[in-house]
Design a protein that fits this description.
The protein has 247 residues and is of the alpha+beta class. The protein is built from 5 helices and 10 strands; from the N terminus they run E-E-E-H-H-H-E-E-E-E-E-E-H-H-E. Helices cover 27% and strands 28% of the residues.
Length: 247
């Protein structure tokens, strides 16, 4: 059975009003996430932290759902509905916390791996990539006004499966969410990268591959990715979660 070794790092924005990140990494249970959203409207948690709190409350249900996909009786429709419901619930909590007059647009990418299966679920402009065999795959598609065409991955492989266009959306918005979700078999000798909005769209997939090939450790790879991003922007937190899948 595969096991996981990960490293995560966040560098804060250099402006107080910059977007704030929250990250989750749990090697033992194979659960990882990155979320990016606006700063708190006053007292209390900021949006990305609210999302991870809601996610954490349902991790056992989601993890067991992913594990069920390894069984003949496993149902992707049922597992996808679990992710949809939790993302929607978190979105409503964020909207209530920020109110109708505040920008609450929040992004999140979640990866859960159990029993040789994985699910990546996504809303917004955070991103997920897979690096394997000298190739990089961008798994997620941005839900933004500028990402209006379906594209090939930034590397040399196609995305794992087509993801329908949803237009601009984020957690905390009034409209119902359309959560992107894919399931796939966990492949040994793979490296999975989750990036916050402060890295996504700034550091290209090929740059992630270069960092992966040139760094002696996950910590060094994370440092190279974040330096690349923070040299180009200072208005958002920059966060990266890197997961190595071993035999």
């Amino acid at each position: 059975m595969s096991h996981f070794v990960s490293f995560a790092r966040t560098v804060a924005a250099q402006v107080a009003i910059g977007r704030k990140d929250a990250i989750l990494r749990d090697d033992q249970r194979g659960i990882f996430a990155v979320s990016s959203g606006p700063p708190s409207p006053g007292s209390g948690a900021f949006a990305s932290r609210i999302f991870l709190t809601a996610l954490h409350e349902h991790l056992d249900v989601l993890s067991n759902g992913v594990a069920s996909l390894s069984l003949p009786t496993g149902s992707w429709r049922r597992v996808k509905a679990m992710f949809d419901g939790i993302f929607q619930m978190a979105s409503e909590t964020i909207r209530q916390h920020y109110g109708t007059n505040q920008n609450s647009d929040t992004s999140a990418t979640v990866l859960i791996m159990r029993q040789g299966m994985a699910v990546m679920a996504h809303v917004g402009t955070t991103r997920g990539y897979i690096i394997r065999g000298g190739r990089v795959v961008r798994v997620t598609h941005d839900h933004s006004a500028t990402d209006t065409t379906k594209r090939r991955s930034e590397g040399t492989m196609l995305a794992l499966q087509p993801v329908r266009l949803t237009g601009q959306q984020g957690l905390g918005q009034q409209a119902p969410l359309s959560v992107d979700g894919i399931s796939f078999k966990v492949q040994p000798a793979s490296r999975i990268v989750l990036c916050s909005g402060g890295i996504a769209g700034i550091v290209r997939g090929r740059d992630l591959l270069t960092a992966s090939q040139g760094a002696p450790s996950l910590e060094a790879m994370a440092g190279a990715i974040i330096r690349n991003a923070t040299q180009r922007q200072i208005v958002a937190d920059a966060s990266v979660v890197i997961v190595d899948v071993a035999d």
